[in-house]
Structure formats: structure tokens, C-alpha cells
Amino acid sequence: MRRAAVAIASSALAVSLAACGSAKESGGDSDKATGSAAKGDNIKIGLLLPESKTARYEKFDRPLIEGKIKELTDNKAEIQYNNARQDASLQAQQIDTMITSKVDVLILDAVDAKAIKNSVQKAVDAGIKVVAYDRLAEGPISAYTSFDNVEVGRTQGKALLEQLGDKAKDSQIVMMNGSVTDPNAAQFKKGAHEVLDGKVKIGKEYDTKEWSPDNANANMEAAISALGKKKIAGVYSANDGMAGGIITALKAAGIGDIPVTGQDAELAAVQRIVAGEQFMSVYKPYAPEAEAAAEMAVALAKGEDLGSIAKDKVSSDSAKDVPSVLVPVTSLTKDNVKDTVIKDGVYTAAEICTGKYKAACDKLGIK
Questions:
Q1: Quick one: DSSP state of residue 32?
Q2: pTM (predicted TM-score)
Q3: Number of Cβ within a 10 Å radius of residue 132
Q4: Which of 122, 217, 301, 353 could form a disulfide bond with 43, CB atoms 3.0-4.6 angstroms apart?
Q5: What distances in angstroms separate CA 25 from CA 109, 217, 289, 321, 346, one per listed residue?
Q6: 61: nearest Cα among 48, 70, 74, 73
Q7: Gap between the Cα atoms of 150 and 137, Å rounded
Q8: pLDDT, tens digit, for every residue of 251-280?
Q9: What is the pLDDT of residue 7?
Q10: DSSP 156-208
Q11: 75-130 pLDDT per residue, tens
Q12: How far is CA 350 from the centre of its chain?
């Protein structure tokens, strides 16, 4: 993990943690569970991430969160980490382990946001505050940080429509949404439909189990068979991993040069964008999101107020007006690779412009 990635932090999130207050002032329902006195830096924070197939979690999220927690606590905080490997039952067991370990706060990126509700309640009943990370977990959470997920979908939809241009009126696309167990997927879909509906025909639409590239590949093969390979003008893909599986299916069918969207700015996707195989991705700067989670977790563990950190409020079916930090996103195309992921230190030109991508990079002036 390059240290440069840590430097992405948005100035909007360069907040002070000096403000003190009672735990009950932080705004989440779970604040009612404890009212412990303020603590020093010797706190214990649990971190549970959902899976490792998507490159971001181990490459960016984990080291960024852990690094910020250590920075905020003079390296005195104890961090306990686990990855659920896309297994909701395993994640519930991991929360039980965190409860047994008596962590002060749990940062949770849920595999299944609804299924985890009882486990969140169990943690809160044990006096552990829960920060929902990236996905809005059900249950009495104390804080939440993510991106504006509806705007992510809008950004993808707008990019696809603009690339289709006049062809959008008389053509059709395939929509490849994410997993139904992920509330973010529903928000991405909502935003995309707001832009696409009435502007282009949606020939086939799928909710992709587990966000799996293999499942996206199979769905795309089915769509090509149903619609005909000459009748698909573009593909809305909710993330980069699925875009990879979709593009493999398109190539196998002899379909080329149609726009495919994505999300996460994964290295392989950036390379496909440079090469013209994938049209765009949504660049989500992970450092502001990760650092916000760390800041809120440390503040909650110390009994401090979240008012100086969380300027937004978000509600779920089971928690209202949760203090939240929502991070803005950017449409990433070949035209702004240098000004986004390279400028922010996420990747170097050398990492992107390997082997077969070098000529394309040279053409774009990426060196």
C-alpha cells in the first residue's frame, strides 16, 4: 500500500477532535446504551470489513482506517480486525468475538445490511457503539460514513448517456446492478434509473449476486443471447469488478467499442479505461471516508461529541438522524486519469502503464 494514498484526505474532513461532550450527544440511538466517562488514548476498536474480492478493502480501507486510528491515539489504541469474506454468518460470529473482546467501538462494513441488525443490537446491548462504514447497516448505529450513493448512480448514468449521444434514443442497454443484500446497490440503481429512464431503453436488467464478476459475466452472456449482439449499445455496470466480467463476455461475443461503466477506480479498471475497453469508473477517494470512520470511532470511544465531524444526517428503517459524513465522487475517464488517481497518489503512472497499456498511456500523455 503506497503511503501516498493516505494523503488524499479532503480538507473538508480535517476536523478537530478536541470538542468534548457526553456520549449521548452524538445523536445515534445506540448512544443511550452507555454513558461512560471520557477515556484517553488506550481504547480498543474493532474493524470488520465485508470481503476481499474487491481490491479496495485490503489495499485501501483497512490500512487507511488503522493508520488514522493510530495517529489519533498516539499509537496507543488496540485495533482488532477481521474480514468476513462475503459470508454474512461469519460476520455475525466475528461481531460475537468483538463483543467477547470488549471493544469500545466497532467499525462495521456489513456483508448483508439487514441480516446484521440483530448482531448490531447485541453489540449495542453490550455497551459497544457501532459506526456503519460504507454500507448503512440496520440496527441502532451511532454514526455512518459513505459516499453519496444515489449520486454515484446518477454519475454513472449521466456518463453513459453522454457517451451514447444521439444513439441513446433508438438503442438499448443492459443494466448490471449490484447485490440485493447491499443497500448501496439499491441506491446506485435508484440514481442510475433517475437519469436513464425515459432516455434509453433498458433491454435487460440484473441484480448480481455477491457483486461477483463471474455472475456478471454469466448475466451478460444471457443478455447477449436474449437481445442479440448487434442490439446492445452500452452497459451500465455498478462496479469495476463486474465490468471486468462483462467486458470478457462482450469480447467473447465479438462485441467491441461500446461504453461500459464502473465504480471504485480499481487498477485493472483504470488500465481498461486507458486502453478504451471500459468507458468510465466512479472515483471515490477512500482516505476521506476511511479517516471519517476512524475519527468518529475514536471520538465515540473517548465519549466525545460528533458534532464537529459529522455534518450530515442519514436515516435507515431502524435508526433515525444518524450523524454522518458523505464524501463526494468524481467521474473517471481516460481524460482525467492524471488529475485524479495519479495526482492523489492512489496509483503511479508506472503502475498503470505496464506492458500492453504503455502505448495507450503514451497517447494520453500519462508518463
A1: G
A2: 0.77
A3: 32
A4: 301
A5: 24, 48, 22, 12, 36
A6: 48
A7: 17
A8: 999 998 999 999 999 999 999 999 999 999
A9: 38
A10: HHHHHHHHHGGGGGG-EEEEEE--TT-HHHHHHHHHHHHHHTTTSEEEEEEE-
A11: 999 999 999 999 999 999 999 999 999 999 999 999 999 999 999 999 999 999 99
A12: 25
Question: Which residue has 471515490 as its cell numbers?
Answer: 284
Q: What is the pLDDT of residue 156?
A: 98
* Cell 445490511 -> residue: 113
CB atoms under 10 Å from CB of 165, counted, come to: 8
**Nearest residue to 364 via CA among 271, 235, 253, 225:** 271
CB 332 within 8 A of CB 282: yes
Tell me how far apart the alpha carbons of residues 138 and 110 are, in angstroms, rounded to a whole number: 9
**Sheet with strand 78-83: strands edge to edge:** 78-83, 44-49, 105-108, 129-133, 143-147, 322-327, 312-314
In the sheet with 172-177, reading across from the earlier edge strand, the strands are 201-207, 172-177, 234-237
List, in sequence order, every residue forming a beta bridge with 144; answer none if it has no partner. 132, 324
Amino acid sitting at position 93: Q
Q: Please say if the pLDDT value at position 28 is more than 70.
A: no
Output the CA angle 53-179-225, nearest 5 degrees: 95
CB of 58 closer than 8 Å to CB of 84? no
